[in-house]
Amino acid sequence: MSKHLQFPDPAPDQELAAALAPLLAPPSDTEGYWNAFERRVMARIESRSVWWFVSPATLRAGMAAAGLALLALGAMALQTRQMEARMAYRAVTETPLEVAAPIPGIDERPSRYAEPPATLPGR
Amino acid sequence: MTAPARVLSITTHRVVTDDVATEREWVLAAQAGDQAAFGWLVHRHQRRAYAVARGIVLNHEDAEDAVQDAFLHAFRALDRFRPDQAFGAWLHRIVANAALDLTRRRKVRDADELPETVSSPFRDPAESADLRQRLREGLAALPARQRAVIVLHDVEGYKHAEIGEMLGIPEGTARSDLHYARARMRDALSSFTSED
């Protein structure tokens, strides 16, 4: 049998409900209490949700704007990098080469290495 | 979607009438970002939400905390609510789970003393106080889930299938929970009447 047995829902127990009702009310069940409680609930919602609560339409628009901003930033970064590379290339290619003058005492060869002997002694 | 024109006037005058706008319109306005519309929903549902929470957590402060948590959660989850559903049932599900969560996290404290001004079906104040005490003890002796089931069924009038969905339990479990909880509460009531 694939059918599940269906039992009717029993009716709520009115006597028990009446007895329980006073236990389920706040100590001060007045309109003033409920208005104040509502204000507390709403204040808590406002304090905790200001940063994220936006309507779906605003959220979509915001996401689109953020995406465009990200693309623009990416393009700018790429352009800056290319410009820097070009400038570095130009700096290298367009600067004239300078031949450095020999510095006495550093660039001169020591005398003992100046000329190798023509023949080994004793041969 | 723009909020109904009378939303702002309701926050100041608090004249809530069903014929101004259906609950669905308020829900749609709240979903579109109108906090005043959500305020109207809070105003409309807070009493029953409190009763559900109080039945589970047993004391006033925890009930208030659970209801506030639940409304905050509901506000954040509004996008996921389908307006063709009953907002009250959806909210009570969140409230019941917030209250059950609170009972898991905290030790159940003694219930507050109820003032004598609270309405009661019993006339004699001494008798009424004694009965309340027994019922309170009876409720406190029940597991939190059974308290949730008896409050949702007998006080709020939900059916077992709805309760099962609200609490994330099989319908049969809701039935057996109600049966057990009723028997315990009936014991509390009958011992009270048999002592008279």
Shape of chain B: elongated
CATH level 1 class label of the largest domain in chain B? Mainly Alpha
Strand content of chain B: under 5%
State the order of secondary-structure elements of chain B, H for helix, E for strand: HHHHHHHHH
Question: How is the main sheet of chain A built?
Answer: none
Whole-Å distance between the termini of chain A? 119 Å
Extended strand count of chain B: 0
User: Which sheet architecture does the biggest sheet of chain B show?
Assistant: none
Helix content of chain A: 40-55%
Largest interface: A-B, 39 and 52 residues
Derived structural class of chain B: mainly alpha
Report the C-alpha radius of gyration of chain B, rounded.
19 Å
- Number of folding domains of chain B? 2
Query: How would you state the average pLDDT of chain A, rounded?
Result: 77
Please bin the fraction of helical residues of chain B: 55-70%
Oligomer: heterodimer
What share of the residues of chain A does DSSP label as strand, in percent?
under 5%
Molecular structure report:
The complex is a heterodimer of chains A (123) and B (196). Chain A has 123 residues and is an all-alpha fold. The longest helix of chain A is centred in the middle third of the chain and has 39 residues. The radius of gyration of chain A is 45 Å and the shape is rod-shaped. Chain A starts with 13 loop residues before the first helix and ends in a 29-residue tail after the last helix. Chain B is mainly α and 196 residues long. Chain B has two domains: 109 residues, RNA polymerase sigma factor, region 2, helix turn helix motif (Rna Polymerase Sigma Factor, Chain: A, Orthogonal Bundle); 79 residues, Arc Repressor Mutant, subunit A, CATH 1.10.10.10. Chain B is elongated. Chain B starts with 6 loop residues before the first helix and ends with a helix. The N terminus of chain B is likely disordered. Classes of the chains: A mainly alpha (123), B mainly alpha (196). Chains A and B meet through helix 1, helix 2 and helix 3 of A and helix 3, helix 4, helix 6, helix 7 and helix 9 of B.
